[in-house]
């Protein structure tokens, strides 16, 4: 259905639910396929187009308008390692992963 962002979110939920790590390799293989498809789909997008597309998602828009998240993102620009500290909070992690999946936060 080419709804890659939703598929990534489902896989991330599956990874959290797989406490016995019985399906880790399968989940990671599917995540890799989806991320490659996303990168291919978004290869020609400018940063402005990415932001415009992502902001059409109500959840992304809500996250981006949250003052706490704005502060976390500003802090991460100056100190990317700080983002790792924030990822320890499950609520913040979920929001950050939503932004990563939407293409707003780039990972290498």
UniProtKB/TrEMBL annotation:
<keyword id="KW-0802">TPR repeat</keyword>
<dbReference type="Pfam" id="PF17830">
    <property type="entry name" value="STI1-HOP_DP"/>
</dbReference>
<dbReference type="GO" id="GO:0005737">
    <property type="term" value="C:cytoplasm"/>
</dbReference>
<protein>
    <recommendedName>
        <fullName>STI1 domain-containing protein</fullName>
    </recommendedName>
</protein>
<dbReference type="InterPro" id="IPR006636">
    <property type="entry name" value="STI1_HS-bd"/>
</dbReference>
<keyword id="KW-0677">Repeat</keyword>
<keyword id="KW-0963">Cytoplasm</keyword>
<dbReference type="InterPro" id="IPR041243">
    <property type="entry name" value="STI1/HOP_DP"/>
</dbReference>
<feature type="domain" description="STI1">
    <location>
        <begin position="57"/>
        <end position="96"/>
    </location>
</feature>
